[in-house]
Request: fold
Amino acid sequence: MLGAAAYADPWRFESNIEVYLLVAFLIGAYVYMIRVIGPQAVAQGTTVTQPIVTRWNVVCFCAAMVLLFTASTWPIHQIGEGYLYSVHMLQHMMLSYLLPPLVLLATPEWLLRVLVGEGRLYRIVAFASRPVVAGVAFNVVVMGTHIPGVVNASTTNGALHYFLHLSVVLSAVLMWMPVVGPFRELHMGYGGKMIYLFLQSVVPTVPAAWLTFAEGAVYSHYGDQPVRVWGISVTDDQQLAGAIMKLAGGVYLWTIVIFMFFRRFGQGWREENTYRRAPHSFT
Reply:
């Protein structure tokens, strides 16, 4: 163990060429769709009174690419996969709670309609984006990615590792589709969205509580590390991971719910309680 500790260096830089290529491809594909396909799609009436791209779309896309790069490369990726499960949890939170809504907000309606079409693929997306289907699928993936055998195997199996990350991102995209997706016909009402997001914060309580109150190392891979980053013990690492999953995820979703509540009902309250007189017509 001492020999392994002498050679272990959590902060040694490691490149992730596949992530660099993925981000570069996504940026190139987005620019191509906006500049080449967009004018043709809008001219053919693929979208209704919608510009090719808005500044908000571009801002969300840039934020999504920065987030994807940050979560999937050194040092978060290396430390999260090899040393601290709490950092691994932070990585998954970034890929499931932050990245998917940004991707959807970055996607103009015409772009998704061009990619999905109006046939079978659209019907599959519409079905998978139903709140019950999307919510259950997302939470099944969340629960599955916390099974000890799955976590331990993914740290040494590259194919399984990328499959799990892909499953997390895709299921999260579908989960967010009824809330902020480009297809307005798939959206729920404000009340439904608030209840839906609140429920998404309930299920993660189970694995979060398990991590918080577990005795000993839940995941042998993280318990066997010869070097403890920042001196964090296995127990403290697991408890921190549980706190990130429950508190950070819950606070994030509850903040969105509160924002939606005031956006929906705040305007009416201001109008009803203002001291300003409404303009009168003398005709």
Remarks:
- The two ends are 90 Å apart (CA to CA).
- The longest helix spans residues 234-272.
- The CA atoms of residues 171 and 206 lie 19 Å apart.
- Residues 13-269 form one domain.
